[in-house]
């Protein structure tokens, strides 16, 4: 059996080191944000040798990028509820919870900041959201098949439109977000989707 | 007449220094982003003494914050067209143009990055968008008065919903934006607003 360094089985030393380092990264991001992220501090927090952290992750951008990949892997697709409004509210609530959770919210903000100045971080961020959008869009497709929405509805754009007002307030206009903002997003998207505004070349 | 240092009349030396420094800041942001912004480089580019730049702006966050204030001052409210759809398309197009203009787009991305890690930058960003949202919301209020939208429509939220999908793609999911994305935002918001989804406690 050919086992290269860095590809040991899940649960092995390599996986444990990665878990400790990514946990430490999330903690540090929650406390100091992206600009306060230093490799030495992460190595200390994780109880891992500095050489290992530098060799494997290279720098703060490498840490953020790997953290995004790990978060994407851990994001699980739930079964649909069979009701579009309930599905969209679940989606909006999951976005609200992620952005307002102290550690995860800070991680998302740090990822967004890193992406503004680094192409690799931007590509990782894009992959992270493309995957989430695709998973949730399947529920919208099912609603189209059930006849809840017009044929030709752009399901990915429906999902983007649920997240967008929450991210806009949290990241751009810097306004508070709560369950009313999430409910408004659902009401707006549902009304527009039912009216055919998400149908390509039709709205 | 009592003229304190730093409050000379517009067009005086203080204003010229500020203009040169903020121009240099936008150039540097367009080339290297927020993380590459250094005070020495800005002083060199602007042809201004380093001592002056350090004394007046303190650091990169001070430069970004002042740049935001300047951009907010220069953002002018246009007369409304008398037609809500045309007003919203003008708004969406102005957001699209800002985000895709090389220098201004990079400045907005840098401001967003700075706000993730600095409270003063976050407050300045909030002020910048609050002012823009308020100016455009007036046009939506006029449409409500004309009877184009239901009474009680949350005009500020209508405007946020126009910007949100453009910023979501440009800053969060890192997807391209173009006039189709802007047109979709207008179609979605108009359909939802007409259906009453932006009416408080009513949607």
UniProtKB/TrEMBL annotation, chains A, B:
Residues 38-57 bind DNA. Gene3D superfamilies: Homeodomain-like (1.10.10.60), Tetracycline Repressor, domain 2 (1.10.357.10). GO terms for molecular function: DNA-binding transcription factor activity; transcription cis-regulatory region binding. InterPro entries: Homeodomain-like_sf (IPR009057), HTH-type_TetR-like_transc_reg (IPR050109), HTH_TetR (IPR001647), Tet_transcr_reg_TetR-rel_C_sf (IPR036271), TetR_C (IPR011075). It holds the Pfam family TetR_C_11. Residues 15-75 form the HTH tetR-type domain. SUPFAM superfamilies: Homeodomain-like, Tetracyclin repressor-like, C-terminal domain. Keywords: DNA-binding, Transcription, Transcription regulation. This is TetR family transcriptional regulator. It comes from Streptosporangium minutum. The lineage of its organism: Bacteria, Bacillati, Actinomycetota, Actinomycetes, Streptosporangiales.
């Amino acid at each position: 059996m050919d086992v290269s360094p860095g590809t040991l089985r899940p649960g092995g030393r390599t996986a444990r080191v990665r878990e400790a380092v990514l946990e430490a990264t999330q903690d540090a991001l929650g406390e100091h944000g992206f600009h306060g992220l230093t490799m030495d501090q992460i190595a200390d927090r994780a109880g891992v040798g500095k050489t290992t952290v530098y060799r494997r992750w290279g720098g703060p951008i490498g840490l953020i990028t790997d953290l995004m990949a790990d978060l994407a892997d851990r994001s699980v697709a739930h079964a649909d509820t069979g009701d579009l409004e309930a599905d969209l509210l679940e989606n909006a609530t999951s976005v609200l919870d992620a952005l307002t959770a102290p550690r995860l919210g800070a991680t998302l903000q740090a990822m967004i900041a890193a992406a503004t100045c680094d192409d690799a971080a931007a590509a990782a961020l894009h992959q992270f959201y493309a995957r989430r959008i695709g998973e949730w869009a399947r529920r919208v497709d099912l609603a189209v098949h059930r006849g809840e929405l017009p044929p030709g509805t752009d399901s990915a754009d429906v999902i983007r439109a649920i997240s967008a007002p929450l991210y806009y307030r949290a990241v751009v206009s810097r306004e508070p977000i709560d369950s009313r903002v999430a409910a408004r997003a659902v009401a707006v998207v549902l009304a527009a989707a039912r009216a055919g505004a998400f149908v390509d070349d039709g709205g």
